[in-house]
Amino acid sequence: VQLQASGGGLVQPGGSLRLSCTASRSIFSFSHMGWYRQAPGKQRELVALITGGDKTNYRDSVKGRFTISRDSAKNSVDLQMNGLKPEDTAVYYCNALASGNGYWGQGTQVTVSS
């Protein structure tokens, strides 16, 4: 399984970015897909998760600002990020879980700075 993350970049505080994670097989074959992030010197943390039943879960610091969704046409899981803050700066990784196996994408850098 290959996961390809894209959409990162440099944005000013308050701006928006949309990350996309495309998979080499149907996204509906995974029980969970999610986005994690890792800032320099910090542990990787869960940002948002979506299940096969389209239930979503977010870390508290991004609730109301970030939205995770699945796009069947693109076979992708997207993360819409609004109201970005400098503390959102990190490398964002896509993750997928199926039959107890976890898969990671290569990461995409998000930098929030004026």
What is this structure, in a nutshell?
This protein is an all-beta fold and 114 residues long. It has strands at residues 3-6, 9-11, 17-23, 32-38, 45-51, 56-58, 66-71, 76-81, 90-98, 101-104, 108-112.
Q: Would you kindly provide a written description of the structure presented here, covering whatever features stand out?
A:
This protein is an all-beta fold and 114 residues long. It is built from no helices and eleven strands. Strands 2, 4, 5, 6, 9, 10 and 11 form a seven-stranded mixed β-sheet that branches. The N and C termini lie far apart (37 Å).
Topology:
Blueprint: E1 3-6, E2 9-11, E3 17-23, E4 32-38, E5 45-51, E6 56-58, E7 66-71, E8 76-81, E9 90-98, E10 101-104, E11 108-112
Parallel strand pairs: 2-11
Antiparallel strand pairs: 1-3, 3-8, 4-5, 4-9, 5-6, 7-8, 9-10, 9-11
**Residue windows where pLDDT falls under 50 for at least 5 positions:** none
Number of strands: 11
- In sequence order, what are the helices and strands, one letter per element? EEEEEEEEEEE
**Average pLDDT score:** 96
Secondary structure category: mainly beta
> How many helices?
0
Distance between termini? Answer: 37 Å
Beta-strand portion reads over 45%
Shape: globular
What is the alpha-carbon Rg in Å?
Answer: 13 Å
Overall helicity: under 10%
Main sheet makeup: 7 strands, mixed
